[in-house]
Amino acid sequence: MRRFLIAGNWKMNCGPVDAAELLEGLENAKTEVAEEVDVLVCPPFVSLGMSVNYLQDTDIHVGAQNIHFEDNGAFTGEISASMLTECGCSFVIIGHSERREYFGETDSSVNKKIKKALAFDLVPVLCVGESLDQRKQDIHFDLVKNQVTAALEGISGDEALDVVIAYEPIWAIGTGETASKEQAQEMHAHIRGVVADLYDQETADEIRILYGGSMKPANAEELLSQPDVDGGLIGGASLNAESFAEIISIAEKLS
Ligand code: 13P
């Protein structure tokens, strides 16, 4: 039985001052502790330490939005996996479409980063998804299959169980336009099929596949009700404590 994971990707928002305010709001807004649901927030690097401290007595996990695949060295501006674990992070988003588009991430760097994250006991949240153009060309299923296959290359079935996959159609990110529940379900089922082909059905049945792209309280229930949707990777709505808490409650209700 897969547990929902409700994850907030704060992107380049909330330095330590705003992060404290948002976390306080989240604490106040959460009427019940989400016992059946895993909750994750992914603040920018400079707010990780304070977020870990702030949340230390809660069940909310803290993750980063990127790592470098080398252990250390002359990589100005980069952050290593060991630095994140030292900070108290337990998750890391890898291969977000914004990083692929603006910062030159490739399937190969994504694969190296996933391996590094796993080696340091960080749960990688592997992001995949197609552009509108790719969907119009009807190559989205193949594209996502290739992204998942390349990202998991050289990763064993046991290790793959520790990976979370996030399907984020690029055309739905930050646009207010969300994938329909049917579109989300068919791609999630497709991804699960890809994982079954790469490993086996048991692994595919266990791996969590999140949906990301304009998820908000108004559409969370129909998306999270789909059999292969195991949670959400939420951008804009995670910056509002009430909205994020509401999505957590919806997941809790559906658990
Ligand atoms: P929005 O929820 O703002 O569309 O962002 C989704 C996303 O990119 C999460 O990683």
Order of strands across the biggest sheet? Answer: 1-2-3-4-5-6-7-8
Ligands, deduplicated = 1,3-dihydroxyacetonephosphate
Determine and state the CATH class: Alpha Beta
* Number of self-contained structural domains: 1
Termini separation comes to 10 Å
> What string, H for helix and E for strand, traces the elements in order?
EHEHEHEHHEHHHEHHEHEH
Task: Please describe the topology of this protein.
Blueprint: E1 4-9, H1 16-29, E2 37-42, H2 48-54, E3 61-64, H3 81-87, E4 91-94, H4 97-102, H5 107-119, E5 123-128, H6 132-136, H7 140-151, H8 157-160, E6 164-167, H9 181-198, H10 201-206, E7 208-212, H11 217-224, E8 231-234, H12 241-254
Parallel strand pairs: 1-2, 1-8, 2-3, 3-4, 4-5, 5-6, 6-7, 7-8
Helix pairs in contact: 1-2, 1-12, 7-9, 11-12
The structure holds 1,3-dihydroxyacetonephosphate.
Q: How would you explain this protein's 3D organization?
A:
This protein is an alpha/beta fold. It has one domain: TIM Barrel, CATH 3.20.20. The protein is 45% helix and 15% strand. It has 12 helices and 8 strands. It has an 8-stranded parallel β-barrel with strand order 1-2-3-4-5-6-7-8, surrounded by 6 helices. Helix 1 (16-29) runs parallel beside helix 2 and helix 1 crosses helix 12 (241-254). The chain is globular. The N and C termini lie close together (10 Å). The mean pLDDT is 96. The protein binds 1,3-dihydroxyacetonephosphate (13P). The site of 1,3-dihydroxyacetonephosphate (13P) has 14 residues, from strand 8.
